[in-house]
Specification:
Blueprint: H1 11-24, E1 29-35, H2 45-50, E2 55-59, H3 66-76, E3 83-85, H4 94-114, E4 122-128, H5 134-142, E5 160-164, E6 168-172, H6 184-192, H7 203-216, E7 222-223, H8 227-232, H9 241-252, H10 257-269, E8 275-276, H11 281-294
Parallel strand pairs: 1-2, 1-4, 2-3, 4-6
Antiparallel strand pairs: 5-6, 7-8
The structure holds guanosine-5'-triphosphate and magnesium ion.
C-alpha cells in the first residue's frame, strides 16, 4: 500500500530555523544530536549550511545493538568531527562529550590569549531533529533539569541559553526538520521513531513500514533476533509483515488493525521489541557509491 507523502513544517519550526541561524553565528561549536536508530534520517540537510557540525552525538545508544553503534561511529567519525555515543536519560557517554567540549574550550582560549583577550566560556549549540534527546542531554550535562524533555516531538519551542559553571554555555534549540520531507524513506523512519508529530501520519502505514523494514534487517541490526516473537508469541516466519499485523490484531486487539499498529509502534519506541537499528552504514555507503556513479 502506498502511503501519502508525509509533510511536517509547523510555524514554530519555520521561526526556529530563522532564530537558530542568528544564534549559530555566536557559537563556537555545534553538537548535532542524532537518533542512533536512524543516524541517516535524523540529520538535517540545512544544518550543514547553517553551521559546520563540530561533534556528532549518536543518542539512544541503549536502543540499538552495540556492534551496530560501533559501526556507525567508525563510519561517521572524521579527524575534525568526533562522534560520541550517548544515552541521555542515564547520562552514559557524557564524560567523552565533556572532554571533547573541554578541548574546544582550550583551543578557543589559547587563541584568545594569543590576541590578548580574556578567557571566556565555550558557547555550544545543541541541534537536531525533534525528539532525539537534545534537552535530555543538556539536563544531563548540567546535572539538573533546566530544559523540558518529554517523549514526543516538538517539546522545545524556543532557543534557550543555559550556563554550566564558568566554562560552558549551552544553547538548547527546538528540533528542526527540512521544510519538505523530500526523502520519503527518511520521513517514514522519523515517524517510526516518533521524531515527527503523530498528527501527520497514519499509524497503520507506519507500523507496516516498520515491520517491512524489520523483516529485512540483518542480524547485526537486531538484538535479540526474535524480539517480535518474544513479545507477541507470534512467529514472524509464518507471516508477511501485513499478515503479521493482522494476526496480531486478531490475537491481542479484537481484530482492530489500528490498535495493533499503535501497539507495535509503542513497543518499538519503548524498546520492548529489543534493540533495533533501522539504518545501517552499509546502505549509506552503497548510496554514496551509486551517486558517484551517476555524476
Ligand atoms: N531510551 C532513551 N530515551 C531517551 C534518550 N535520550 C532521551 N530520551 C527520551 O526521549 C524523549 C525525548 O527527549 P527530549 O530531550 O525531549 O528530546 P528533544 O530532542 O529535546 O526534543 P524536542 O525538544 O521535541 O526537539 C524523552 O522522553 C527522553 O527521556 C536515550 O538515550 N535513550
Ligand atoms: Mg527539546
Amino acid at each position: 500500500m502506498q502511503s501519502p507523502p508525509l509533510q511536517w513544517y509547523p510555524g514554530h519550526m519555520a521561526r526556529a530555523v530563522k532564530t537558530l541561524a542568528a544564534h549559530l553565528q555566536r557559537v563556537d561549536v555545534v553538537i548535532e544530536v542524532r537518533d542512533a536508530r536512524i543516524p541517516r534520517s535524523s540529520t538535517h540537510p540545512l544544518l550543514a549550511t547553517l553551521a559546520p557540525t563540530g561533534v556528532i552525538v549518536l543518542n539512544r545508544r541503549d536502543q540499538i545493538p552495540i556492534p551496530l553503534a560501533q559501526a556507525w561511529m567508525a563510519y561517521l567519525t572524521r579527524p575534525d568531527r568526533p562522534v560520541i555515543l550517548t544515552e541521555a536519560r542515564q547520562g552514559q557517554g557524557l564524560s567523552q562529550l565533556r572532554q571533547a567540549l573541554a578541548r574546544v574550550g582550550q583551543r578557543l582560549n589559547q587563541r584568545r590569549q594569543g590576541r590578548g583577550m580574556l578567557p571566556r566560556a565555550v558557547r555550544v549549540a545543541v541541534v537536531g531533529c525533534p525528539n532525539v534527546g537534545k534537552s535530555a542531554l543538556i539536563n544531563r550535562l548540567l546535572g539538573r533539569r533546566v530544559a523540558a524533555s518529554a517523549p514526543k516531538a516538538g517539546v522545545t519551542r524556543q532557543c534557550q541559553w543555559v550556563r554550566l559553571g564558568g566554562d560552558l554555555e549551552l544553547l538548547d534549540t527546538p528540533g528542526i526538520l527540512p521544510p519538505r520531507l523530500e526523502d520519503q524513506q527518511a520521513a517514514i523512519h522519523l515517524a517510526i521513531c516518533d521524531d515527527i508529530s503523530e498528527a501527520v501520519y497514519d499509524h497503520y502505514l507506519i507500523a507496516l513500514a516498520f515491520l517491512e523494514r524489520w523483516w529485512h534487517l540483518p542480524a547485526q541490526a537486531r538484538h535479540p533476533q526474535n524480539g517480535l516473537e518474544k513479545r507477541y508469541q507470534l512467529r514472524p516466519q509464518d507471516h508477511t509483515p501485513a499478515g503479521y499485523l493482522a494476526a496480531l490484531a486478531e490475537k491481542k486487539c479484537g481484530g482492530d488493525l489500528n490498535r495493533s499498529a499503535q501497539m507495535v509502534l509503542n513497543d518499538f519506541r519503548k524498546g520492548a521489541l529489543g534493540q533495533i537499528g533501522l539504518e545501517l552504514p552499509e546502505d549509506e555507503m552503497e548510496l554514496e557509491h551509486s551517486n558517484i556513479g551517476q555524476n
